[in-house]
Design a protein that fits this description.
Elements lengths: L2 H10 L2 E7 L9 E6 L2 H13 L3 E6 L16 E12 L5 E19 L2 E8 L6 H22 L4 H9 L5 H10 L6 H9 L3 H53 L3 H14 L7 H15 L6 H15 L12 H11 L4 H20 L9 E5 L6 H12 L3 E5 L7 H4 L12 H9 L5 E5 L13 H9 L7 E3 L4 E3 L5 E6 L7 H4 L2 E5 L5 H20 L6 E3 L1 H11 L6 H20 L5 E3 L4 H5 L18 E7 L2 E13 L4 E5 L4 H16 L1 H4 L3 H9 E6 L13 H13 L7 E3 L2 E2 L5 E2 L4 H11 L3 E5 L11 H6 L1 E5 L2 H8 L9
């Protein structure tokens, strides 16, 4: 207010009528319509109009519930307004329109002449100009943002706000207060009483920031809801269109009803178990009562389709002719006589049980073939399925960690489906296929998803699998007619309870001459057919195949050999096409040109007897072979042993107690005083080559002791001798595993003599005869005997 107006006000309006307000606080620059009903308020309005040019003070009543006016109940700060219009209502009340001018301080208040009168003073804002300007700018920006987001102000008002300055302070405050619904009457009155405009603006800015966040969130929600509604409406429209099209094509509700009738008719077949028929009937009744648009409709329909696809009661006619089975195995596989015998024996027992009508086959065993990759485990199953007339089904179990993969998911889960057993039965189309459970030793376990090996117990146990329950079907199934056939690389990795349910047959590594026959009889012919070659265009000599086996492949089986033979056939095709030749005959000299340099470094005996180098024997899932253990002797002041070559704990322990055994029994073994002095004052370094390959196990104990003995005495080790065996602190050579594979590897490498523990002599019946013929196999029971055969020039002091 300028000085002239202030002087006029102080002269004419220092005492003005007061109208009490119940629940509304008016700020300067606001316009408001106020309903008036109380007699005191009407009298105040009349006095203002007649005596004060329409000037009036609006003062908030602290207790809005009180009808009678009390001076002590009135606020100390009010708003000076000018009456611009007054309209009498039908009920006798008035509707008064006012324009707010200024804030006023009530100096004194009295109830005279039937209305309130107040001595008052104009209240001005007092602020730091810089602080006020900064706060004003922030508040103005907040007001514009909210107005833009909500659309509460038209564009002209927004533009006027943008162009406004501090002279429009009251207008900005009024607009902000009007746009904050959350401000209570007490909060508004507190702002009216505040003499710092910056504080008022700061409070309003805080409210507006919160309001802006809420407004943006509401806008986002509205947009999302609108989008969702549009999507729902669109889906409904498209579904209605699809429904109309289906009806035109004869695929509508009538077609769906016909399909349900067809499904119901399918389950009338009496070969289907009663429980399955009852379940299907129940689900079909539920389906008929449901709207096809319901999500559960598709879930039930899919369930019925799965239930219908299972070949309930369907069985292949099984051929029990043992001669036919034997002939199929002989045709597809070379060698493996023991394996073939075991398979035929298994079939013979099954045939006898069937002929006798014996249903209780609780003692029946599941066939399990254990051996290195590529030795024919899976192909034997294929031949068996072909010879018996059963459908062949293979389930790869490598890496399976979820029980639900075998038992299925319950229908409560989204995307639920039956397990592998049920899905592969559907694929086979019969309830008595040959199921190959491939790599059963590589199943995992997961704390969150269960243990599939435990589920496999029920599947493979003849006492339980006649009532196997898939979680998805929630029905019992009879799996007892299935011929289960398992394969594994490592027998020790198969859980113990599963081992008890299996009849295990071990397949060892192929000898080079066996690989040669397999290549001649099977692999070359198959690869020629795969590349379109015939006998008039291609041939390969036996010598070339032998070189391929020795120089380009190193494996227990023949899988890699098959791949290399295929590569040779491809190269032969290229020569026929590009070089214009009529026939390609592959000889050893051509292999480097066709396949490149030899891929395998030949492992064979040493060229001469060497001090401190001993040929041990290893065994792995890929087969067996020699492992040369090397040693060095370094001068020192005390006995010390060190081991390198990626050797694990058990093998390190073998070195330690071999070293200590020599020191403890030096004289009994035949060490001289100089040898003993050397042993007790030297550092012995043991190294196992091919350090990138992890090595472990106790079976190198005898070889470690021999290497240390040779290094200490300076006597060489016989290069034609290989050995395997664990030793104990008594000097005994104890039993080990993998005898067949180790001996096969030793024979392949060209060794003449192999030392094995005497306790393993019983395992020699599993060793192929050609391996026995190639080796002098010597069972040993103590370290003296080992040294006698291995160390050149050694004579045991104690037998």
């Amino acid at each position: 207010m300028n000085d002239t107006l202030k002087e006029t006000f102080e002269k004419d309006y220092t005492e003005l009528p007061v109208m009490a307000m119940r629940d509304s606080v008016i700020f300067p620059s606001m316009t408001a319509e106020i309903p008036v009903g109380r007699a005191e308020s009407k009298a105040a309005l009349k006095a203002a109009a007649e005596q004060h040019n329409g000037r009036l003070i609006l003062l908030i009543q602290n207790d809005p519930e009180k009808e009678e006016l009390a001076l002590e109940d009135m606020a100390g700060t009010g708003t000076l307004v000018t009456i611009t219009n007054s309209i009498e209502q039908p009920d006798g009340s008035l509707l008064v329109k006012v324009e707010a001018k200024d804030r006023v301080q009530i100096d004194s208040l009295a109830l005279e002449g039937g209305y309130l009168r107040a001595q008052n003073t104009i209240r001005e804002y007092s602020d730091n100009p810089q602080e006020l300007a900064a706060t004003y700018k922030l508040a103005k920006e907040a007001l514009i943002k909210v107005a833009t987001t909500e659309g509460s102000l038209d564009k002209q008002v927004v533009q006027s706000i943008q162009d406004s300055g501090l002279e429009d302070l009251n207008q900005i405050i009024a607009l902000m207060v009007s746009n904050i619904d959350a401000l209570k009457v007490a909060d508004r009155q507190k702002l009216l009483e505040t003499d710092s405009a910056a504080s008022v603006l700061e409070t309003l800015y805080s409210h507006f920031s919160s309001k802006q966040s809420v407004a943006l969130l509401e806008k986002k929600i509205k947009t999302r809801v609108k989008s969702s509604m549009e999507k729902t409406q669109r889906e409904y429209y498209l579904k209605e269109q699809m429904k109309a099209i289906q009806e035109e094509l004869g695929e509508g509700e009538e077609a769906e009803a016909d399909e349900l009738e067809e499904i119901a008719k399918h389950f009338e077949d009496e070969t289907i178990p009663e429980a399955v028929r009852a379940k299907a009937e129940k689900e079909i009744k539920r389906l008929k009562k449901m709207n096809p648009m319901q999500s559960e409709y598709n879930v039930i329909r899919t369930y019925l389709d799965v239930l219908r696809d299972i070949p309930w009661g369907v069985k292949s006619e099984v051929n029990d002719d043992l001669e036919s089975a034997r002939a199929a195995l002989e045709e597809d596989h070379y060698g493996l006589e023991k394996v073939k015998d075991n398979v035929v024996k298994h079939l013979a027992v099954s045939k006898r049980l069937k002929e006798k009508g014996i249903e209780d086959v609780a003692e029946a065993k599941i066939m399990c073939m254990v051996g290195p990759p590529g030795v024919g485990k899976t192909s034997i199953a294929q031949s068996l399925a072909k010879s018996t007339g059963r459908e062949y089904v293979r389930i790869a179990l490598g890496g399976v960690r979820d029980e639900a993969e075998l038992r299925g998911h319950r229908r409560t889960y989204v995307g639920a489906k039956p397990g592998k057993i049920v899905s592969h039965l559907i694929k086979a189309g019969t309830m008595n296929p040959l199921f190959v459970l491939d790599e059963i030793d590589k199943m995992g376990a997961d704390q969150q998803r269960g243990d599939p090996a435990s589920a496999m117990l029920e599947i493979l146990d003849p006492e339980q699998n006649n009532s196997f329950e898939d979680h998805y079907l929630d029905l019992e199934m009879d799996l007892s007619n299935i011929m289960f056939y398992c394969t594994a690389n490592e027998y020790g990795n198969i859980p113990g309870p599963l081992q008890d349910r299996m009849e295990v047959t071990f397949l060892g590594s192929y000898m080079p001459d066996e690989k040669l026959e397999i290549a001649k009889q099977h692999l070359v012919r198959k690869q020629m057919k795969a590349t379109g070659l015939d006998a008039s265009e291609f041939s390969i000599t036996d010598e070339a195949l032998k070189k391929v086996i020795s120089a380009y492949t190193r494996e227990a089986g023949v899988r890699n050999l098959k791949r290399v033979v295929g590569q040779i056939c491809v190269e032969a095709v290229m020569k026929l096409e590009n070089d214009g030749v009529d026939k390609v005959e592959v000889t050893p000299d051509m292999l480097e040109d066709l396949l490149g340099p030899a891929k395998v470094r030949e492992t064979s005996t040493l060229k001469k007897d060497t001090v401190g180098v001993v040929a041990g024997l290893y065994y792995s899932a890929a087969g067996g072979g020699p492992l040369f253990i090397q040693s060095l002797k370094l001068p020192g002041d005390k006995a010390k042993i060190e081991v390198t070559g990626n050797v694990a704990k058990v093998m390190q322990e073998s070195v330690t107690y071999a070293h200590k055994y020599l020191r403890a029994h030096a004289e009994q073994i035949g060490l001289t005083e100089d040898n003993i002095k050397t042993l007790n004052s030297s550092e012995i370094h043991i190294h196992c080559p091919e350090a990138a390959t992890p090595k472990d196990g106790p079976s190198a104990g005898a070889a470690m002791l021999t290497a240390i003995f040779s290094q200490v005495t300076g006597k060489p080790v016989n290069r034609e001798v290989a050995m395997t065996g664990e030793i104990d602190m008594m000097g005994n050579v104890t039993a080990i595993g993998g005898v067949k594979e180790k001996l096969t590897g030793a024979a392949t490498a060209g060794f003449k003599k192999v030392l094995i523990p005497q306790d393993n002599e019983k395992d020699l019946h599993d060793v192929p005869q050609q391996v026995k013929d190639a080796l002098e196999i010597i069972p040993v029971d103590n370290v003296n005997t080992v040294l006698e055969h291995a160390i050149v020039g050694y004579s045991p002091k104690v037998a």
